[in-house]
Amino acid sequence: MQAMEISRSGLDVEWRRMEIIAQNLANIGSSRAADGTLYRELHLVSGPRTGFAGYLKSGTAAASDLSGVAVYGIEAGDAPPRLAHEPGSPQADADGNVAYPAIDTAGQMTLMMKTERAYEANIVALNAARQMYAKALEIGRRS
Amino acid sequence: MEATNAVLMLKSLDCLSLRMQVLAQNIANAGTPRYRPMQLTFEDALRAAAADGDAAVAAFAPTPEPAPPVSGSADLRLDLELADASATAGRYGSLIDILNRQLQLQSLAIGGSN
Fold first, then answer.
1. Which residues of B fall within a CB distance of 8 Å from A139?
2. For testing the chain A interface, which of B29, B42, B100 should be mutated: the one with the most A CBs within 10 Å?
3. Distance (Å) of CA A105 to CA A3, A24, A68, A82
4. Is residue B61 less than 8 Å (CB to CB) from chain A?
């Protein structure tokens, strides 16, 4: 896989991570989804893509297989809901408590900043690779 | 001017390009927990191959290996990776400039005028 494709896969994964973070933060006050269940904090699971070429060469996913990064799935967290005492709410249970999703706001904000930095780093790497390609087109050119 | 120079330069361009892929792979995996960064070192081995002649240089094929921990931590240092990427792109560019000048000299030698 070429350097620019690898950086592109990194951009894709970080973008999708950012979408998940936005979804989590947007649903911080969702006491009930449309189907009646409680929203749960989502996590993007990503890791190095194991390429077919690597399997062919060594029979296993080789660590030196340069095939970028991939999203392996989106998983919901299993933290217990946050209970708020709101007796007046139509969604309150017998004790007057309303369940809200347990979203770790500080954790999500930290992850958001890390994601932003990683996205920027991928763009810088992409530009460096693009510069190399542009330079390679100059081989044999007369100045 | 020896013929080794062109073969050696083309091989170093290949190696720098591969190093760029390794760096891109590391940076793309900045969000992967417990990711082990990789590196490509080829300068010393390529220099040794260059002493053995063109065939050894042409057959030279470095493979990426896990990077040793930086200052005690095996985690990815995004800033160092970006600095390496920038340096790699710069060296690639300057090698191509040198190659171009050599080609110009050869064309001058053949045609008499540039």
1. 96, 99-100
2. B29
3. 35, 9, 30, 13
4. no
Please give, rounded to a whole number of angstroms, the shortest distance from the CA of B69 to a CA of chain A.
16
Q: Where exactly are the structural domains of chain B?
A: 4-111
Residue pLDDT, tens place only, B34-62: 888 889 999 999 989 988 888 888 888 88
Q: Which has more confidence, A141 or B79?
A: B79
Q: What residues of chain A, 39 to 78, have a C-beta less than 8 Å from chain B?
A: 46-48, 63-64, 66-69
- What does the pLDDT average to over B73-94? 90
CB A106 within 8 A of CB A83: no
Rounded Cα–Cα distance for residues A62 and A120 (Å): 27
Among A65, A50, A58, CA closest to B63: A65
Is B27 in Cβ contact with A64 (below 8 Å)? no
A118 contact residues in B (CB cutoff 8 A)? 27, 30-31, 78
CB B62 within 8 A of CB B15: yes
For residue range A46-103, list pLDDT tens digits in order: 988 876 665 666 555 455 578 889 999 999 988 888 888 988 888 888 888 888 998 9
Residue ranges per domain, chain A? 3-28+42-76+103-136
Taking the C-alpha atoms of residue A38 and residue B58, their distance in angstroms, rounded to an integer, is 62
Is B96 in Cβ contact with A139 (below 8 Å)?
yes
Strand, coil or helix: what is A84? strand
**pTM of the entire structure?**
0.84
Mean pLDDT, chain B, integer: 87
